[in-house]
């Protein structure tokens, strides 16, 4: 009798699902504590300067660096003992070698496809040429604001809100539920910018509208970033994508509208085509098997009558 006839049960499972569940109250509380800790660290300094002043930026670098050291303690302390026995702690944080090259390239290229329209608009202004200029990179790495936006902010936020929170939430909720839960902490953590805008003299209504808009798009990005982490099992994937999105920012539709009619139509097609392509390729480009991810995302498994277990990613 062949193996398929001996199949008793088919189901999907990941390594993190083979261990006892952690209390939802515990994981939510830990994530909330990490969020508060991260935001609070930005305001512990008695500083009269605005957020872009070099002194403020340097102090915040120090603050979030400390939070990055503390956040893994929550994951280590409250994770299932059985899970810690099955998976190395660095792998639980998404810091592993297997599938690393794919995790660097594929999500980045996928995100470039999503931004195909804005990238084509940039090509019209030939601003892309600066990325091939050594002096541009030299000056960028001397610019503390550039380092904040493209290195430190993506690094610290993805490490705390993805690498430390996702493995905890995944021990209490399903992968899809986790993808929708953790970004809420990430989005709400950005609401604090309303305080900075008010201290700079901005009207409350304007500050509130801007902050709500920021909450919306940071939460949406959080869904995508959390999905990448859970599917690839790599920290590097959401980190690089976050840095790229910080560089691109929100699409400049005004610049699009200033193009000649035929160019405008072509660029609108790039916007639409890039988004459709991203939607169609998202699942295929993030197949866990490509990244050797057996930890977070369910694999299709079969239990045979002889009590053997066979799993495929």
State the shape. Answer: globular
Record field, number of beta strands: 3
Backbone CA Rg: 22 Å
> Strand-residue fraction?
5-15%
Oligomer: single chain
> What does the main sheet amount to?
3 strands, antiparallel
User: Which spans have pLDDT < 50 for at least 5 consecutive residues?
Assistant: 1-7
How large is the count of helical segments? Answer: 15
* Order of helical and strand elements: EHHHHHHHHHHHHHHHEE
* Structural class estimated from helices and strands: mainly alpha
Distance between the terminal alpha carbons, to the nearest Å?
Answer: 25 Å
Give, in spatial order, the strands making up the sheet with the most strands: 1-2-3
Helix content: 55-70%
The average pLDDT score comes to 85
How many domains make up the 3D coordinates? 1
Can you tell me about this structure?
There is one protein chain. The chain has helices spanning 24-41, 54-78, 81-86, 89-92, 100-114, 116-124, 134-140, 144-164, 166-169, 175-188, 193-199, 204-232, 236-248, 253-257, 261-285; strands at 7-13, 299-304, 309-312. It has 313 residues and is mainly α. It has one domain (10-301). Strands 1-2-3 form a three-stranded antiparallel beta sheet, with no helix packed on it. Strand 2 and strand 3 form a beta hairpin. Helix 1 runs antiparallel to helix 2 (54-78), helix 10 (175-188) packs antiparallel against helix 12 and helix 12 (204-232) runs antiparallel to helix 13 (236-248). The longest helix has 29 residues, at 204-232. The radius of gyration is 22 Å and the shape is globular. The model is unreliable at 1-7 (pLDDT under 50).
